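Q: What structure does this chain adopt?
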Amino acid sequence: MNQLLCFTSAFCLILFHGYLSIAEAGLVGVNYGMLGNNLPPPSEVIALLKSRQITQVRLFDPNYDALQALQGSGIDVILGTLNQDLQNLGSDLSFARNWVQENVIPYSEAVTFRCISAGNEVDPGDLAVHVLPAMRNLKTALGEANLGEIPVSTTVSTAVLGNSYPPSRGEFTEEVSPTMKSITEFLAAAKSPLLVNVYPYFAYIYDQQNISLAYALFNSSEVIVKDGQLGYKNLFDAITDAVYSALEKVGGNSVVIVVSESGWPSNENGEIATIANAQMYNNKLIAHVSGASGTPKRPGRSIDTYVFAIFNENLKPSGTEQHFGLYYPNMTEVYHVEFTQ
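A:
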């Protein structure tokens, strides 16, 4: 998670941690993280997702057992690459070919890959320079395998934003702007989405003087932020539209955002990270993105969104990071979320 978010011109926050068409309802999925030593086997997890009628999942890396279990399940997949593979993926086309050969081709007839993500939250950072070359080589390798219809993208946090308030002033930081401009040009030309991790929770806990809990929890019925002719009733839309504004400023007017992570922790932060608040946030998030209202900047354009995460993961950093799960490792609910709207 490691995100930087600016909600006022003078205040920046450090935060840890085929696609859509207009007037279509958004697709809702879940992140399948595996940083736990007590998690059930993937075959049981995929059966659980099917029982909940969850049809979209995001894998952070190509886990063999998970991909095996997903075959024929009817669950579509966003598949990520390991960050440590980015340099080889970008510098060696044969490495990218082998990656596709091992992790995509064997499953492509029984699994729908909605997107391949070259890395997760590496920009800004030392690995950022390798992202675009990796995306290009993966796209080439997929095309050679007659799988060129699978979009290739990358996943960013809001650390890429140098300003986000009001949303219309959203722009990339000076550090990442050249990289993000090149990535955006690739995405626009390929008609691929940008994957963005959006966490109102972290924005709220670091700026409670300026952000209300109701605004962060989708619990405000009134406009809280007025931005020209646009009005914002929730922080999720404001963050998403700030990224849209940043994309527009580097020529990405046509690039669609997919929210690759969003969620709320249920423990380890007093009266903020509670089961009640996590349940409220995720249920209202799903209801919001399942409709076709879109955001104020992109009305009528639905938002594919992936809830973070299926399980509480005990090998993540201690504190709230271990409590984003919808389920305990024994597969009982932490709280109930309704995925069918």
